[in-house]
Write a structure and sequence with these properties.
heterotrimer; A mainly alpha (322); B mainly alpha (330); C alpha/beta (512); A: 322 residues; mainly alpha; two-stranded antiparallel sheet; 2 strands; 74% helix; B: 330 residues; ABC transporter involved in vitamin B12 uptake, BtuC
Amino acid sequence: MPVSASSRSVERLARPLPAILPIGLLLVAGAFFAVNGFASARNLANLGLQASILLMLAMPMTLIIMSEGLDLSAGAVLSLCSVVMAESLAGGHGIASALAASIAVGLAFGVANGAMVSLLALPPFVVTLGTLGIAEGASLVLTEGNAVSGLGSGIATLYALDVFGVPFPLLVALATWLATYLLLHYTRFGTYVFAIGGNRDALVLAGAPAWAYHIAIYAFGGLVSGVAALLLTGRMNAAHPTVAIGMEFDAIAAVVLGGTSFERGDGRLLGTVLGVATITVLRNALDLLGVESSLQVVSIGALILLVIVIDSLRKSRRVQTA
Amino acid sequence: MMSGAAAVRLRGQWRHRLAGDAGALALRAALILLIGFLLALASDAFLSTANVLNVLRQASLIFLLAAGLTLVILCGGFDLSVAANLTLSACLAAGVIKSGLPPWLGVATALACGTAAGAVNGLAVTLLRLPPFLATYAMLWILQGLAFHYMGGQEIFGFPPGFRALGTGFLFGVPVPVYLMAAVLVAATVFLRATNFGQEIYAIGANPEAARLSGIPVRRRQMLVYMLSGLMSGLAAVVFLARVNAADSGMGEPLLLPVIAAVLIGGTSLFGGVGSVMGTVLGAIILALVINGMNLLDIRAQWQPLVVGVVLLAAVMVDLVGRGRRERIG
Amino acid sequence: MTRDANDGGGSGQPASPVPLLALRNVSKTFPGVRALDDVSLELHAGEVHMLLGENGAGKSTLIKVLYGAYRADAGTILYEGKRVDIARPADARRLGIAVIFQEFSLVPFLDLAQNIFLGREPRRLLTRLIDHARMHREARAVLDELGLDYDTRALAVDLGIAQQQMVEIAKALSQRARILVMDEPTAALSERESNALFALIRQLRASGVAIVYISHRMQEVFELGDRVTVLRDGRRVATLPAGEATPDQLIGMMVGRAVGAVYKRRRYGTVGKIVLDVRGLTTATGVRDVDLNVREGEIVGLSGLIGAGRTEVARAIFGADAIVAGEVQISGAVVEGGPEQIVARGVALIPENRKLEGLALKRSVQDNLLVASLWKLFPRGWYRAGAAYRHARALIDRLRVTPPAPRRLARVLSGGNQQKVVIGKWLAAGCRLFLFDEPTRGIDVGAKSEIFALIEGLVEHGAAVLLISSELTEIVHVCDRAYVMRAGRIGGELARAELSEENILRLAMHER
C-alpha cells in the first residue's frame, strides 16, 4: 500500500492532538464567556506570565517522558536553583554569575538523575523522588526555611522588562520552546530521544552511545530549571525554598494532556504547549470562580487519569513496530 | 538416628538459610546496633529510657505506614500515595471525632477511607492496567487535594484522652504504638508466610507471568494487597493522629520518603518477590534512629529531607547491587 | 514452482571467480554443544545463496558469526580473498555485511529517512544541525533504487510489517551493503508482499549484491535461489546449484541424525478416552482453524517449523492467549477463560521459555514446586512450612532433582533440573493433561532422557500429553502419533507407522 505525501503531513500534525484540542478549546471558550474577569487584558497578560515558568519546565519534561522516564524532582530543583541564585545576588554578585551558579546546580541534579536512570537502570520515579528530597532538603538548609530577599532591583527589573512589547519572561519561555524544538528535530540528540523511548535497542545496534544521550535528556531538564530560576526569582524578587515544589505535577500534566505518550517515544511539543495553556487557563478560571487550589489539583489529577486511559486505548488500536 | 550424609545435608541447609533471608535480617540488626553504639558515643541523651522508647514509638509510626507498602512492593507493585492516604484518612477521622461522635467511629472512618483509597489504586492497576507508579502518583495528588479541601486550611486539634492514648500512651512502660507494631508485624508475617495468599503474593512479585501461567489469580491478589495497604494507611493515620493530637492537610507529606526508605533498607526489593515485613521493622528502626540522631545532635530539621533522600537513594542502589544488575546494553 | 531460466544468474554459476566472502573451516563451540563444526562456505557477488537446515542445525549461529555478534573459535574468513577478522558488528558493517532481522529495528515515531540514517545522520558543516534536506534526498534515492514509492516523511509506525521490512533493506543498502543476510523474511508476509520482496531481491542480485537467504519454504528455494547450502548438526552437508537439486534430495540431506543417545519409548500402552478436543481453534496470534485431540495414555506430538504456530496453539488451549473462534474441550466439557480456570480443570503448561514463564528464579525450588498446588495441599489456606518442605522433598526425590535442596534458589539449578522443577510443579497439582512446549531445549543429553522417562511415566498413569518439539527425532521416537503444523494450520497428521523425519519435514515445508 503506497504511502502518499500530503495525507501523511496532515495526519502527522493532527495525530496527537485529539485529546487536548477539544478539551482545551472548550475550556478557553468556557472561561472566556462564562468566567467574570477572565477576558480582561490584565488577566490575560498575567496568564502569560504565569504560564512562562510552567512552559519552561514542561519542555524538557516532554523529552523525559518521551524517553519513558519522569522527573519528579523538577519543582524542587527549580526551587533550589532559585535559592542559589538569590543567595548569590544577595551576596552582591551580578545577575550573570548568579545565573551561572543556578544553571550549575540544575545541571548537577540533572546529570545525577540521568546517570542513575541510564547507567544503573533504576526506576525514574524512585530516583527523582530521592533527588526531590535532596533538593528540597538542600533548599531548606541553605535558607533555614526563610525566604531570601535583599536581592537589589536588578532581577526584578529584568523580569518586568518589555522587549519589543513582549514581556521578558514570555520571551525566555518562547526561546526555551524554540530551543527544545530545534534540539528535538534538528539534532542527533533529539532524534535519539525518540529512539530511546521507542526502540532503544535499535539505537544501540546502530552503534550510538545510547547511555550518554539518555543522561543528556535529564541533564537538559536540570539546565532549563537553572534558567527558569531566573523567572521565578525575578517574579517575587525573592526566593522561597519550597515555592515551586509541586510545579512538576502541572508540568507532567501538561505533557500528558498534550498527547505525549509514556511508552512509545512519541512526543509533540506543540501539544505540551497547548497543555500548559490549558492548565494555566483552567487554574486561572477556577481561581476566579473561587475554587480553591486543592480541588484544582484534584481535577487535574482526574484529568490526567482520564487522558492516560484514552492514551492506552488509542495505543491498543495502533499498528506497532515490534 | 541420623546418617552422616543426612547430617551434612542438614548443616548445609542451615548455612544456606543464614546466607538467605535470616542473614539479611541479621545484617540489619547489626547495623542497628552499630548506629545505636555510635549515637550513644556521640550523645549522652541517647541511651536514656525515655529516648529509646521515643525511638521505638517513632519507628512504630513509620512502620505502620510502611507495612502496607511492603506488601504492595512484594507483590511487584508500588504505592506513592500512602502518605497522602494517611493525611486524608486522619483528617476525616479528626473531623468525625471533633464533631462529637464517638472516637471508635473516627477510627472506623479512617480505616474505611484508607481501604477505599487503596481500592481505587487497585482498580487503576488491575482493571485500567495503569503502571503502578503513575496511577498512585495521580492518586497522591487527588487524595492530597481532597484533604486540603476538607480542611480548608485549618487545623483540627484536641482529642479525647482515651483516643490520644493510642498514640501517646504507655502500657506496662512500653508505648502503645509499639504493641500495634508488634501486632501488625505478627499479623503480616503470618499472612505472608503461613497462608496461601502470602505464597501467591511472593510468586506474583517474583515473576507475574509465571504466576499467571501457574493458575494464580494475579489481579485478584493485586487488588487485595492494594486494599490492605490502604487499610494500613488508615490504621497509621489513627495512631499518628493520636500521637500529634492534631490534624492538618500537610501531616502525611514528610512521611513518604522515610517510609519508602524504611521498606527498601529493610531488604525488600523494588522489583518484587523478595523481602519481609520483619525487614521493614528493622528498616523503620534504622530510619527512626537516623532522625533521632539528627535531633540529638542538634542538626536542624531542614536537613532531614536531604538526609532521608540520600538514604533512600543509597538503599535503592544497595538493593540493585545485591540483586544483580538488570540487563542493559549500551 | 516454476523457474524462469532468464532470471539473473539462472544457470547457478557465480558471476565472478573470486568469492566475495569465504568462510574456511569455521567452528564455534558453546559449553556442551558444537554449534558450527568446520564449516566452509563461499558467497559470490550477484547470487542468492539459500541456507537450509532444520532448527538447531547452526544457521543462526552462522549468521551471528557473519555479522559479528559471535566470533568464530576456529577457521578463517576471507573478504575478496583477503583475511579479515569479524570480532564485532562494526567490523561486519565496515565490510558491507548487513542483516535483516526478524524483529525489526525501526524507531516507531521517526520518519523513514531518520530510520534509514539512524546513527549516521548527515549534519550541516557549520551548525552541526541535522541536514534534513540531504537526509531525505539520500533516503529518497535509496528507496527509488529499490523501486519503493514510500514517502520519506512517513512514520515507521504507520507502515505495515512488509513495508517495514523493505525499509530495513533500504537501511542496509544505504550502508553500502554488499552482502545481505535475510532470516526467513517472508515469515510474516502475504503472498503478494512476498512477491514484491522477491522482485526487490532479484534487483539487488542483478546489481551485484550477495544475498544469504534462510528459508524453510521449498518454493522459495527454487524460485529465488542460485545455490543451496544444507547445514545439519553444525556441519555443512552439501552446496549445490539450485537447478540441480530436488526437494526430496534436500530434505534427505537436512534430516538423518548422527548416531547419538536418542530416547526410545519403552512401550506404547493402551489409549483411553479423549481428554483434549480442539475444534476450529483460531486466535489473533496466528492460529487458523486447528483441530486436534489427545487421549489418555498417549503422547501426541505437535511438530512443525519455528513460527508455524505450535506454541500459540498450546497457549490458546491453556487460556494464556485469547481465542477468537473455535472451542477447546477438556474431558468432554467446553472450557473458557484464563489460565486460572484451565488449571482448575487439571491442565498443565510447561512453557517454551522456562526461565521467563515457567519459574520464579529468585524463589526457592520448594516455592516453585508448590506454587500451582497450594490450594490442593492446603485447602483451608493455611500454608505450613513443615508440610510444604516434606512435599517438596518428596517431589525432588521422585524427579531426582540435583542438588536435592528444596531451599536453594531455582536460579542456581542447571537447565535440566530447572525443567524438572517446572514439570514437578504440575505433578503436585494432579494434572491429567500436560502441554509440553520444547521441554528438552537447551538441556544436555542425560537430562533429556530423564525428562522423556518422566513424560512416559505420566502417560503410563493415564495422563494425556501434547508434546511440542522442534527435534524431529524426538517426535518420531517418543510419540504415539503427531500433528504437523504449517503457517498456523494443521498441515497433516501422521499415525505411528507414518512417523518419520522425512514425512514430518515434508508436511512442515509447504510440500505435499
